[in-house]
Amino acid sequence: MDTSEMFQPYDRLVEIEILGERRMVPENNSLLRCLQFLSIESISYGDFCWNGTCIECQVWLKQGDKEKGVIACRTTVAEGMRIVRLAKAIDLAEPTGQLGVSD
Ligand code: FES
Question: Which residues of the chain have pLDDT under 70?
Answer without folding.
Answer: 93-103
